[in-house]
Amino acid sequence: MIAMDVLETVTRRNNVRQSGRADGKAMVFAHGFGCDQNMWRFVAPAFEKDYRVVLFDHVGAGRSDLAAYSRAKYDSLQGYADDVLDLCRALDLRRPIFVGHSVSAMIGVLAALKEPDRFDRLVLVGPSPRYINDGDYVGGFTREDIEGLLESLDSNYLGWSSAMAPVIMGNPERPELGTELTNSFCRTDPQIASHFARVTFLSDNRADLPKVKTRSLILQCADDAIAPAAVGEYVHERMPDTVLVRMKATGHCPNLSAPEETIAAIKAFL
Amino acid sequence: MADETEVPPSAAPIEETAEELYENAPCGYLSARPDGTLLRVNRTFLAWTGYRQGELVGRKRFQDLLSPGGRIYHETHYAPLLRMQGSVREIAVDIECADGRRLPALVNSVLYRDAAGMPLVIRTTVFDASSRKEYERELLRARQKAERADKLKADFISMISHEIRTPLSAIIGIGHLLAATELTAAQQKYVRILRSSSESLMGLVNDILDFSKIESGTLTLEERSFDPRELVYGIVYGLQVKANEKGVALDVSVDERIPRALLGDPVKIGQVLTNLIGNAVKFTQRGSVTVGLKLEGRDGDVAAIRFRVVDTGIGIAADRLPRIFDDYTQASYDIGLKYGGTGLGLGISKKLVERHGSTIEVESAPLRGSTFSFLLRLKVPPPAAPEEAVAARRAPLQGLRVLVADDNDVNVFVVNGLLRKWGAEPDVVVNGQEAVERVQAREYDVVLMDLHMPGGDGLAATRAIRALPDPGRAAVPIIAVSGSMRMAEPHEIDGAGFTDFVGKPVNPDVLFTKISRYLVPAP
Questions:
Q1: Rounded to whole angstroms, how far apart are CA atoms A111 and B428?
Q2: How far from B471 is each of B461, B474, B476, CA to CA, in Å?
Q3: Which residue among A94, B157, B268, B360 is least enclosed by CB atoms within 10 Å?
């Protein structure tokens, strides 16, 4: 039985949006740290003809329900993975395809470990099981770098960047002027973003990779500062059933910078 | 420059080309390819950062000039936003200068596309934000200082509350012990007042402690298996005396489909229910308070359960409804005077329910009553692990036959639960007549006789048992269970032949002590 209340709760909590073929196989797109479901705006529509497309915001991002945030629950990526599983159950998604960008790649891995039969396939865009260097393992960052990121977040939230924009403009009676200035996509709650950053960049999921049974695609960009090529290789070697695709696209967000190439790679895998 | 004749003839020609403006603007200008590779950099930027044109153009990307943390920010926020919005405003970054210095800067970028919509060039303006950064640091320091002071205060409150709790627990404990001794009627009254006052003071201290925990963010929810019926019945049981005294009916209905066991924090959920039911009883003079648990949905191992408390009390005026959950707020000043309480309870309940990812809903009409409810999604644990080992270990009253005469489901549920936990075998009857019949039919080690059964026939039944022909059966220890002595005249109780008396709500320790006291030692 699908409880309407549970469905409503999850829909509100994660700002779930659905499109595409209602009777089609489901594709769940999960955004990474720093953004919200808008991340998928150039990619998701390409799957609407054949699939039931499910987009959502992690709690704390976009238009999710901030009241649902609990520091204890989201103190590890498992909290976010549990939300993904909640969502699959609430929407009654059978064997969906999970597409996770950046940290959501590992969130998908954790969800697939908890319910090994849940997902048909995983698509991991720029995955990294650990961002911090550790002995021989090269994640790309040091702990100090991560502290630098947190500082960067702080200065962008504390500052006038978005919250203070209307005041700077000196036009509180014309808020639309301020609104134009602010960054309207990818809104995140400052404190949650800072906590999410900590949880994301200090996480270590290397030991989880060998346990994943689900067939998975790894999309590795050229020159990705967040998830370097070596990390993609590492994931490919450790996870039992994976296909590694090295993309021409550069940077960490091929879903935005090279949507066509991203779409083609995913379609080829499916 | 368009019209030379406009320039006063005495003024020297002004070299104000666009080039000049670009190179010497009070901000840095950067042009870059969509991947960040720098195409053009103005002189201002070079002067600020100490780079030479040749070091940057065609060689470095904009993000290469950022600190590592800033680079992550660039990849996760800046670049995605720029792609999606076509522009980003007022992003704070630290630019690493040629000599390793970091220049705090604010950047604005615009992404230009070609006719086909493909990204062509990113144009970025860079503002020196050094002094602003200083202000921000000051602000941040001030905020952190304020937060620290706040936390210190919360810690202090928490520490003091703990300190108060220790002696208070001793007072309550001694009160219990004192109540179990032989006392005159006046002494009993004093002990009752002592106990109820110390318990309400304990309640207040606990509220303050919870409140400061919630405030300081140190309150955590446990997840363990509990029986929702036991929880609700236990709470209702505890509040029934007060309801009885006021003549307010206190009923419980638990949806049959609700699982036997749930995973959650029974203490916190219990706290919310105690507060809501306690309030309902407090603010209801006539009529009833109904507690309901309903299964609203079941999805896999998650059960969505609606907890509802409905009363026919004084209600809350519409204009006051929005404020009732505020900290330290009662709907109006005179409420506190008339009904007591600190007004902390609802605020705490609201926050506890919010910690569960839900909210308390309230509907109310003045003089008609109020309904408070909340929906919790709780996991259902896998089938319970065998508890026999536990039962065997602590079964001090193993095999004891106890007759419980009580017509109230809640009482029976609670007392039975206690007896079973101690290994006893309770039988239940719902009136005095049946009690007498049972005692005749079977040998019991002890009888718990409720004095609130309809018709007050607990007294009559006790007399009848004492008059039984079989001297063994007639002498069975009978413990009267009553919420208050007002329900029966003391001399009647004295004359009825009770062996002892237990007050309601039954304190497990007291009940255990009294039952043990009258057991015939095994031969």
A1: 49
A2: 16, 5, 9
A3: A94
A134 has catalytic annotation: no
What pLDDT, in 10s, does the model give residues B472-482? 888 888 988 87
Cβ B523 vs Cβ B487: under 8 Å: no
Distance CA B279, CA B345 (A): 9
Q: Which residues pair with B88 in a beta bridge?
A: B109
CB A194 within 8 A of CB A155: no
User: B402-458: per-residue pLDDT in tens?
Assistant: 999 988 877 888 888 888 888 888 999 988 888 989 998 888 989 998 887 766 678
- The ipTM assigned to this model is 0.82
Residue among A9, A144, A159 minimizing CB distance to B136: A159
Burial call B5-26: b when 16+ CB within 10 Å, e when fewer: eeeeeeeeeeeeeeeeeebeee
Question: Which pair of tokens denotes residue B27?
Answer: 């901000």
Catalytic residue among A36, A57, A83, A224: A224
Nearest CA in chain B to A32: B76
DSSP SS3 for A179: helix
CA distance linking residue B519 with residue B523, whole number of Å = 12
Q: Using alpha carbons, select from A181, A160, A70 the residue that is nearest to residue B220.
A: A70
**Looking at the whole model, is its pTM more than 0.90?**
no
- Contacts with B241 (C-beta within 8 Å, 6 or more apart), sequence order: B483, B484, B504, B505
Cβ pair B369, B287 in contact under 8 A: yes
| DSSP for residue B78 | I
